[in-house]
Amino acid sequence: MVSAPKHIVSWVGTQILPHEADVRRWLLRARLGRDDVEDILQESYCRMAELASVDHISSPRAYFFTVARNIALMRLRRARIVSMESVDEIDRLEISSDLPSPEQVTMARSDLARLKRVIAALPARCRQIFEMRRIEGLPQKEIARIMGLSEHIIENDAAKALRLIMKAVASEDSRFQPQKEFKRGTDAGRI
Questions:
Q1: Other Cβ atoms within 10 Å of 126 Cβ, number
Q2: Residue pair 63/57 in contact by the 8 Å Cβ criterion
Q3: Where exactly are the structural domains of the chain?
């Protein structure tokens, strides 16, 4: 290995070394392990030893922090890269996906279509207020101004719309609940 020019070694010793403790503390505050911090500091010194000139560096302290930061970021990026063997192992674990299944997508679409039908069946003013409040996200005061109604009426109609929607959805859900099974002997003779 070729040693660094004497003027670079001298510059590192006088301009960089006094800031090592500050850079170390800064890296430790970034929740890096002690070994990682020491490696980053050593790699920073190696990079600076490779410099041909230091004339372009106006703030050695800032330069030291920047070099250390860049090395830390590069290490983090490398740590995120996963080997192909690791990917194969993950696939073998059969971990469930966060993506919805086709059945879940179909059910969600069905629920959305049902909700749209229920909203469309609301009385006109209730529907308009509900859509402005819940879908468009307008504040009550703004809806009252747009419709030329009092805030009290807007509040009441929004609550009424919500009650009607909940009632319609609940009644549809109850239609699809499984019926009680007949028990032999007790209900057999009754119709």
A1: 20
A2: yes
A3: 6-81, 102-175
